[in-house]
Structure formats: structure tokens, C-alpha cells
């Protein structure tokens, strides 16, 4: 009779990364692993990877450094998961992934690891992008395809982020507005086109096309103002959520829990919340109420 495999975790005497790899291998063990982990494949893990990356960003935005440690571990585990599945297929292992990124970082930083001279972060960004463009061109040539400035932009990127990257790539060959003011004019034009489609009673496909153009133009404005559109919208989301929760609290206090006071009353409360925030910003920092999670 086959003896059951031991349940003990890999020993703590292992180096931390080796212990993590051993834990992952145990989770994927066909005989004694975790049923959920065994069911996973590359496509099924992707949503979890994206979620973990956003949780890292969230912890950073909230300034939660201890929480960030945990979230970074979760993100690292995603890489280990992919590496284990690749090893099982005989493709490559974790060490191969590390070697590849080691080689890439050394190759893309000749000013650090060789004799190239780069004297500013801006110059480094240009050099980095030029090197990546050269690598993409070589990959396209190896496939017998004509290279494009837009090669290598993942479709799975958030739409705002990908729009900004597409615009930056196009700008490399001069396809760009010279000034932010011209982008504002383009936004006004796109708004007029959306309005015209609404007046004409256009279907959703036409409206989606025009609203998409408007969002693309607004993304372009953010890029020209050196703002990250994804982070900018995340900030707007956070501001809306903060204000709306305050509106809900005020509405409950004035009209009773669960009440629906109507748009005019809610708009008045919204303006009141905005005024509260303006007054708070004008107060000296020492007079402002401390956040509940602020350190003593």
C-alpha cells in the first residue's frame, strides 16, 4: 500500500526563495497538492495576477508600508506560480526567469554596467525606449514582419494606460499635437461630435465610437500635462467615493436612514461637502482633525 506523502511544510532552514519554490511545488503535487492549485493554468491565474498588482498599488497609494510587504509577497507568489507551471511543461524554471531579467537589466543599463554615459533620468528614459525599440525591430525582422512603433503594447493593459502608451509611441515620429492647448481644442471638437450624435438619436455603436474618441483625447491631454491618466482617474474615483460617503452620512442625519431625498437635496449636500473640504484645506495643518489611522 502506498504511504501518504508527509504533510509537513518545507523546512525553514531553506533560503526564503527556495522555501517558497518548494511550497509552490508541493501545492502542485499531483498526489498531495491543493485541488484548487492543481486545477489552475496560465490563463486562469492571469486575473489573480492583475488583482494582486492593483492591491500593491492600493497599499502604496494609502501609505500602508506594512501592508505593502504582504501584497508584494502575494505578487511574487504569482511569478512563482507561473514558473512552476512552466517547469511542469518542460519550458523553463524560476532560475531561467531570473537569469533572463538579470541579462535584460544589464543590457539595458550600459551606463551602469558598461562604459556608456548617461547623465540624467530623462536621457536614460530615451535610451531605454530606443533599446526596447531596437529589440522589437529585431523580433519583427526575425518573424519576417515590418516593425511598427506600436509593436509590443499588451492588449490587456488598462485602456487609459494603453491609450497613453499608444500616443507616446506615435509621438516618436512626430504624430502629436505640439501644445496642450491644441489638445483642449480637440476635446471641444469631440464633445461637439458626441452632442451631435445624441441629438440625432444615434445608436449605441455610434455613441460608443464618439465617446471613445473623447476619452482618447482626454487621455492625450493628461499625457501632455505629464499626468498619468490611470492614476489621475483613480484619484478622481477616490475623491468621488470620499465625498459621496459624506453625502450619504449627511442625508441619513437629515432625512433618516434609507431616505431618498431627491436630486436637488443631494446636489445641495454635495456642494456642502465640497465647501467643507475647501474650508479644511484653508485651515493650518495643526488645526486639522487627525485621521483615525494616523500614528500617535
From TrEMBL:
It comes from the Bacteria. Its EC number is 3.6.1.8. GO terms for biological process: dATP catabolic process; dGTP catabolic process; dTTP catabolic process; dUTP catabolic process; response to stress; TTP catabolic process; UTP catabolic process. It holds the Pfam family MazG. Residues 276-296 are annotated as: Disordered. Keywords: Hydrolase. It catalyses: ATP + H2O = AMP + diphosphate + H(+). InterPro entries: MazG-like_dom, NTP-PPase_MazG-like_C, NTP-PPase_MazG-like_N, NTP_PyrPHydrolase_MazG. One of its GO terms (molecular function) is ATP diphosphatase activity. The keyword Kinase does not apply. Gene3D superfamilies: MazG-like (1.10.287.1080). It is an enzyme of class 3 (hydrolase). Residues 41-113, 183-244 form the NTP pyrophosphohydrolase MazG-like domain. CDD domains: NTP-PPase_MazG_Cterm, NTP-PPase_MazG_Nterm. NCBIfam families: mazG, PRK09562.1. Belongs to the nucleoside triphosphate pyrophosphohydrolase family. This is Nucleoside triphosphate pyrophosphohydrolase. It comes from Hypericibacter terrae.
